Amino acid sequence: MDRIDELESKSIYIIREAYKEFKNLGMLWSIGKDSTTLLWLCKKAFFGKVPFPVIYIDTGEHFQEMYDFRDRCVKKWNLELIVSQNIDKAKEMGIDHKDKIKCCNIRKTVALKNTIAQHKFDALFLGIRRDEHAMRNIERYFSPRDKEFRWKIFREKEKWEKGDSPFEALQPTEMWNLYQTDFGDECSHVRVHPILHWNEVDIWRYIKRENLPVNPLYFAKDGKRYRSLGCGFLILGPSISFSNFACFYLFDYFINIRGLGIDRICTGLTAKTSVAFAVLGKI
C-alpha cells in the first residue's frame, strides 16, 4: 500500500464512522479540488452512491465555470443537491461586496445556518486540510460547533495548582482511530474532516490517479491560473497585482495567482515554498 492508498483508506474509514454515528449528515461542496476529492471518496466509501445531500453555498457571485462544473457533476454522479442561498436578504439589507466581511457573513454564514436549521443536519463533511493555514493545523477530524459556529476546544479550570495550566481541554486527542462524536447539548452540529491529513500535492496526485474532473479555472492559460475558487469580485486575476487579497506562487515559469474565496482574507503577500505543481504532468 503506497501513501495515496493509505490516505484514501483512512479517509474512507472516517467517512463510514461518521455515517454510523450521525443520523442526518450533509456535505459542504465548494466545487473546488479538495471538496470534489472528498465527494469522490464518499462515493467510494458507499460503493458508487453518495447517501446524503451535498450542499452548495451560492453567493450569486461565483464564476459561471463553477456553476457549469457543479451541474455536470450532479448529473453524472446522481447527487442530491441542496443550494444554500441568502442573496435576497443581502440585497434587502443593502449589503454588497463593498463591505466584504458583512457580505461574506450574510451570503455564506447565515445561509449555512439557515440550511442546517431547515434540514436539521447534525453533522457536515468538509474538505479542509491541515496544511492550508495555522488554524486548520490544530483542527480535529470530528470538530463540534455551537449555534454561532464557534469551536470551543478549551475552558478555564475552576481550580488549579501552581505550575499547572489554567485551562483544560474540552476534546480528547484523537489517537488510534478513536474519535469522540458525542459533544453534548451545547453542540449545534459536528464538522467532520476526512481529508485533514492530506496535503495539496496529495490531492493533485489523487486527482490524476483517479482521473477526477477538475474545474478548468485551475489550469494555466497564458501562463497564469487560479489556485482557489470563490466569488468573482473577491478573486483577482489571473493577473499580477499586489493586493491584500492575493498570494503569489512561482513554479516552472507558471505564475499561480491564489484568488482567495469570500471567507478568507489574507493580510499581505505570502511566501510559500511547498507549492502545488502547475500542471498534472509535473507530478
**What does the radius of gyration come to?**
20 Å
Chain oligomer state:
single chain
The amount of helix comes to 25-40%
CATH class of the largest domain equals Alpha Beta
Helix count, DSSP H or I runs of 4 or more residues: 7
- Characterize the largest beta sheet: strand count, sense, and whether it forms a barrel: 6 strands, mixed
Low-pLDDT stretches are 233-283
Largest sheet strand order: 3-2-1-4-8-5
CATH architecture of the largest domain: 3-Layer(aba) Sandwich
Mean pLDDT: 79
Q: What string, H for helix and E for strand, traces the elements in order?
A: HEHEHEHHEHEEEEHEEE
SSE-based structural type: alpha/beta
How would you characterize the overall build of this protein?
There is one protein chain. With 283 residues, the protein is of the alpha/beta class. The chain has two domains: 3-192, Rossmann fold, CATH 3.40.50.620; 219-277, no CATH class. The chain contains seven helices and eleven strands. The protein has a six-stranded mixed sheet. A three-stranded mixed sheet has the order 9-11-10, with no helix packed on it. The protein has a two-stranded antiparallel ribbon with strand order 6-7. The radius of gyration is 20 Å and the shape is globular. The two termini are 19 Å apart.
